[in-house]
């Protein structure tokens, strides 16, 4: 592994067992691990001999500049993200900031995003076409999120919702459900998973009508089925159609 550069690493849910082998190897070989405070705390015990540098939320650009400044000193730097670095992660911003550091090589290591980790807990909800939509309007206007929810529902996608709630957005999941109910049945099979593959993990299969009044937090991933999704003995399953061929 090149001893100078930026490794953008998706750490999955944050446990050593939940990392890909490539991600674990990258963090084993780097000199410095940079990340959002919460994510750094997840890997500190697994990689105790590393130098750790953090920035709080909303300081993403500063975090990238910090990583490149460390790499400029000849260090091999890992920028970590929960889940996958290329799915609502830091990979894109690293490449954008990296235009000012053309001498620094960038390598991305994939991880298990919450949609996949949560799907495994619930059963098999994403066997057919699906889409991911974040309900956070910090960087995306709500009217655009609303349009995506409506069109994905009309097209009968299974839908995964990231960032379904926060202290400032307590009613956003209810608003999203109301939009999806314009095109989906109230009995549509849904699922929620909290703290995926971490301590305190919990999961529940429910209907879209029930989901509408369910409280969730920022550590919850929400799954809304398509018109064929079923509840099989407590597991959320979206058929692909193999049995019908």
Could you walk me through the main structural features you see in this protein, from its secondary elements to its overall organization?
The radius of gyration is 19 Å and the shape is elongated. The chain has helices at 21-29, 37-43, 60-72, 91-97, 114-122, 142-154, 172-180, 208-211; strands spanning 5-10, 32-36, 51-55, 76-81, 106-109, 123-124, 130-134, 158-162, 189-194, 202-207, 220-224, 230-232, 235-237. It is α/β, with parallel strands linked by helices and 245 residues long. The strands form three sheets. The protein has a five-stranded parallel sheet with strand order 3-2-4-1-5, with helices on both faces. It has a five-stranded mixed sheet with strand order 7-8-11-9-10, with helices on both faces. Strand 7 (130-134), helix 6 and strand 8 form a beta-alpha-beta unit. It folds into two domains: 5-112, Tetrapyrrole methylase, N-terminal domain (Cobalt-precorrin-4 Transmethylase, domain 1); 115-237, Tetrapyrrole methylase, C-terminal domain (Methyltransferase, Cobalt-precorrin-4 Transmethylase, Domain 2).
SSE inventory with pairings:
Elements: E1 5-10, H1 21-29, E2 32-36, H2 37-43, E3 51-55, H3 60-72, E4 76-81, H4 91-97, E5 106-109, H5 114-122, E6 123-124, E7 130-134, H6 142-154, E8 158-162, H7 172-180, E9 189-194, E10 202-207, H8 208-211, E11 220-224, E12 230-232, E13 235-237
Parallel strand pairs: 1-4, 1-5, 2-3, 2-4, 6-13, 7-8
Antiparallel strand pairs: 8-11, 9-10, 9-11, 12-13
């Amino acid at each position: 592994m090149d001893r100078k550069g930026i490794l953008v690493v998706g750490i999955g849910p944050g446990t050593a067992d939940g990392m890909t082998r490539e991600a674990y190897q990258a963090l084993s070989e780097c000199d410095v691990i940079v990340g959002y405070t919460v994510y750094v705390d997840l890997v500190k015990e697994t990689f105790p001999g590393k130098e750790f540098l953090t920035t709080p939320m909303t300081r993403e650009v500063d975090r990238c500049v910090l990583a490149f400044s460390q790499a400029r000193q000849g260090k091999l730097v890992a920028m970590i993200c929960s889940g996958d670095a290329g799915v609502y992660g830091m990979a894109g911003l690293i490449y954008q900031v990296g235009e000012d550091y053309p001498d620094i090589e960038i390598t991305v290591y994939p991880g298990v995003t919450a949609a996949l980790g949560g799907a495994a807990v619930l059963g098999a909800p994403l066997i057919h076409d699906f889409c991911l939509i974040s309900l956070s309007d910090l960087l995306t206007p709500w009217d655009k999120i609303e349009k995506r929810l409506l069109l994905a529902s009309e097209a009968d996608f299974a839908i995964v919702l990231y960032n379904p709630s926060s202290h400032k957005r307590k009613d956003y999941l209810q608003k999203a459900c109301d939009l999806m109910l314009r095109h989906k049945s109230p009995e549509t099979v849904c699922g929620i998973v909290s703290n995926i593959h971490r301590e305190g993990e919990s999961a529940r299969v429910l209907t879209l009508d029930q989901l509408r009044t369910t409280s969730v937090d920022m550590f919850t991933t929400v799954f809304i089925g398509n018109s064929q999704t079923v509840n099989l003995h407590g597991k959320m399953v979206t058929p692909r159609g193999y049995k019908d061929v």
